[in-house]
Write a structure and sequence with these properties.
The chain is α/β, with parallel strands linked by helices. It contains 15 helices and 10 strands. Helix 7 packs across helix 9. It binds ligand F0G. Catalyzes the gamma-elimination of phosphate from L-phosphohomoserine and the beta-addition of water to produce L-threonine. Keywords: Amino-acid biosynthesis, Lyase, Pyridoxal phosphate, Threonine biosynthesis. Its cofactor is pyridoxal 5'-phosphate.
Length: 351
Amino acid sequence: THQWRGIIEEYRDRLPVSASTPVVTLREGGTPLVPAQVLSERTGCEVHLKVEGANPTGSFKDRGMTMAISKAKEEGAQAVICASTGNTSASAAAYGVRAGMVSAVLVPQGKIALGKMGQALVHGAKILQVDGNFDDCLTLARALSDNYPVALVNSVNPVRIEGQKTAAFEIVDMLGDAPDIHVLPVGNAGNITAYWKGYREYAADGVAARTPRMWGFQASGSAPIVRGEVVKDPSTIATAIRIGNPASWDFALAARDESGGAIDEVTDREILRAYRLLASQEGVFVEPASAASVAGLLKAAEQGKVDPGQTIVCTVTGNGLKDPDWAVAGAPQPVTVPVDAATAAQRLGLV
Ligand code: F0G
């Protein structure tokens, strides 16, 4: 019997590792590519969801973190640090445990989902809540890694991008070629950078015949790339992408322009509508930021920008269990019944 070995072993020849790199892994990657029935009907396309919430800590961050922590360990680091809106910190905390390293995480005070905080806590990370937003946390994390013995594992660390590009490999390996369009949420813009790198590498080596158009979507209250300027006080219910000055801004523009793609915005209302549609009609529970990709696809389709007959992949980046408040909010309270089948049957509408 054998199982998926994690992205470093599965794609070793395409990653900057050597025989002496200690592989720190939770067997991340190998995530499901799920056909999306309702989205396919609505767009007239063949839409697939790349379900990254199925990774070991519940988000795509594990792909980059297995690389970042393995390389940090190879270089003899004893501690790592990251700024995070929650998922990177959860991943750094877990992989830090596997590596026997101290993980320090900087998060914006009061602005990370409870599930993510719980992960960082239970894995024993050293957590500082910063009186500021994600961009302030990243500034602080850079200053600490520049001046103290601690390695930075944010996606400004290029090996993070190397790990994350494997999601594009998996999609081509499954579909037999790149899709026509790849859609994803954009926050710090590392992931769109990584996918574009992965698609380009496969095309350059002839594994794929083409590259997709890259479509990125930011939340309207946190859309610096769309506006063309830094957003000082970013806001959105999708806390994972509440970022006003993305570190990989220029790479995101390159991905957009080189691929003939687009970077646009979706409102919180559109995000929540897509979030509910994914859960109630596709059976896929994602966190709000993840639904930005699907919200963007639906918006583009409504604007007549999606020609039918195309193959489209939407990455849904994180698991819905990370931030269940939005699932519970506004939903009807379950009714309480006695231990009585007749009453239960009546309440369930079976009679
Ligand atoms: N979706 C989720 C669930 C995320 O956690 C993030 C980023 C993104 C999308 C955007 O990806 O930053 O590469 O453009 N989360 C980071 C974090 C910022 O700290 O966990 P990006």
